[in-house]
Amino acid sequence: MSAEVPHSHPRYASLRLREAIVAGVEKGITSVHGLIAHGRGEALDYLIGEATQPFALEAARAGAALLLGARHPVISVNGNAAALVPAELAALGRLLPAPLEVNIFHTSAAREQAIRAELLAHGAPEVLMPTREAQLSYIESNRRFVHPEGILRADVVFVPLEDGDRCQALRRMGKEVVTVDLNPLSRTAHTASVTIVDNIARALPLMLELVAQLQQESAAARDALITAYDHHRVLRAAEARIRSGA
Ligand code: PTJ
10 Å Cβ neighbour count for 185? Predict the structure, then answer.
């Protein structure tokens, strides 16, 4: 790390992520707004104990099962996700398999290209780009522009660090949405089909592990995980943990 923080520093993991998000801005991958979003995430992560809690594990299992059962899964990537977990996103794309698709809120063609290059450099099998030809319904932001063979056609979309508007639009279009969001009160958290309330830096390695595990299970066993998943109970558990200050 540039700040020469020793490995033994109690805040090493958090400071390493800060460095990664700052490097993302410097490389033209992450929007400056992404720094603010990251800071909010840091505060919430602190309150959940900077560890994967049982509510996140339960959601991650259901999310992995949904992605494995999908006809056409797609992994949507924004500027924060690309800076923090590019290798893990690429590995998830290879494992499922599923294409990655660049989809950002703060409009910038240069940043879209930089994200694509970063994902390819980390071994992504296929990185789709937004087009003017294919647009999502029910949404007006830059995130409406999608790829006709990607998000537009997907039945399950994995969208770590989503913004509420698009999550709602995808749901209204009949798609399942699996998200990672440290804020269990957000519109995204509530609107998604499955919400993993955890830091993306822990959630992605966990998803890789669970997808590999569940690939060995039967479709019936995976379906049982989806049926047992109670979205609102999971969100209430996450909120309770944050409010308890434990
Ligand atoms: O690259 P772009 O243009 O698509 O912009 C990406 C951001 C993230 C800036 C944009 O989508 C945005 O403004 O998002 P929001 O509305 O701030 O929502 C981001 C959510 O992610 C918030 O609820 C944060 O608490 C949460 N969050 C931030 N960092 C992390 C996180 N969740 C999981 N892991 C994190 N590291």
Answer: 13
C-beta 186 within 6 A of ligand 1 = yes
Question: Helices (H) and strands (E) in the chain — how many of each?
Answer: 11, 8
| Nearest partner of 236 among 16, 24, 53, judged by Cα | 53
Pairing outcome for strands 145-146 and 134-135? antiparallel
Q: Residue 73 forms beta bridges with which residues? A: 156
181 touches ligand 1 (CB under 6 Å): yes
CA of 34 to the centre of ligand 1 (A): 7
Lowest mean pLDDT among 13-17, 41-45, 59-63: 13-17
Residue nearest to atom 20 of ligand 1 (CA): 161
Domain presence at residue 14? no
CATH number, domain with residue 169:
3.40.50.12640
Contacts of 225 (CB under 8 A, 6+ apart): 61, 62, 65, 214
Q: Among candidates 7, 12, 27, 70, which has minimal Cα distance to 201? A: 12
**Distance between CA atoms of residues 57 and 229, nearest Å:** 11
Compute and round to an integer the Cα radius of gyration of the chain.
Answer: 17
For residue 230, is pLDDT > 80? yes
Predicted pLDDT of residue 97: 97
Phi, psi of 236 (to 5 degrees): -65, -40
* Type of residue numbered 232: H
Q: Nearest Cα to 215, choosing from 21, 61, 20, 86?
A: 61
Question: Domain of 162?
Answer: 54-244
